[in-house]
Design brief:
By secondary structure, the chain is α/β, with parallel strands linked by helices. Helix 1 (11-20) packs across helix 7, helix 2 (32-42) crosses helix 4 and helix 4 (62-82) packs parallel to helix 5. The protein has helices at 11-20, 32-42, 56-59, 62-82, 114-126, 149-158, 176-189, 205-215, 243-247, 255-268, and strands at 3-6, 23-24, 46-49, 86-91, 132-136, 140-141, 163-165, 170-171, 174-175, 193-196, 203-204, 223-225. It has a domain at 3-146 and 172-200 and 239-254: Rossmann fold (3-Layer(aba) Sandwich). It is globular. The protein has a 6-stranded parallel sheet with strand order 2-1-3-4-5-10, with helices on both faces. Strand 1, helix 1 (11-20) and strand 2 (23-24) form a beta-alpha-beta unit.
Amino acid sequence: MKIGVTGYKGRLGSWLVGQCGCVPLDCDITDRAQVAEAIESVEPQVIINCAAWAVVDTAEQPENREKALLVNTRGPGIIRTEFMGLLVHFSTPFVFNGKEGPYKENAYREPIQWYGWTKFGGEEAALMRGPTLVVRVSDLYGVGPLGDFVRRTRWNLEGDIFCDYPTNYFKTPSYIPHVAEAIMSAIDAGVTGFLHIAGDTTMSTYDWGKMIAEEFGLDPVLIVPGENYGTASRPLRGGLDTSKARSLGIPIYSPEQGLVALRQWEADHGE
């Protein structure tokens, strides 16, 4: 089965291409002609859409709102209309309002910022016809040079810089290789509709920071309660319930297992 990946230069997309045998789809997903040409060239049976405007705060800025909408909403719609096979599209817990998470797949969607609304639109666009699997992921971290919450926390702690993390902002940390493994399992199982793939535990960013410090032998005292939310509104009691994935036999790991795997990967690769 040939699986094409858009957004293959991002961390999840590059892992799927480099480690899972997927094929890059080199196209701008907001350009219908490019999408059609890429599909004709690769002839995939499955497309995994990893392309997204993923920076929540910059999506809120007036000069970026239309761009985020094009990538996150129009793009998935173009792929879905041009492709007849299975589309796997990534979404986010930011489609929820964050009042009563962690959320199950069928929870009521009510975004509270522009990014969330563009991803809400992307879900609807991807589901305009089947077969489609909308996978919501949360707080991705992993290998590679790009910064994420785990990497930024470690950089700060290694420099003896305090990290002020909220005790009331909840996420479900997810290690990218584990997410990729679960995605491939879901594809093999023929799952469609909505599916949450993330770690098995939702926790505050404060507690997550403490766990990162302890796992990597850094000083957890530098993790302090704060109000570092970003400029856009956040779904504070967010996170994803992964019980559906577990009931389907799809592998779901704990945050501790993700950090251990990351530390082992870095040891094996001299990082």
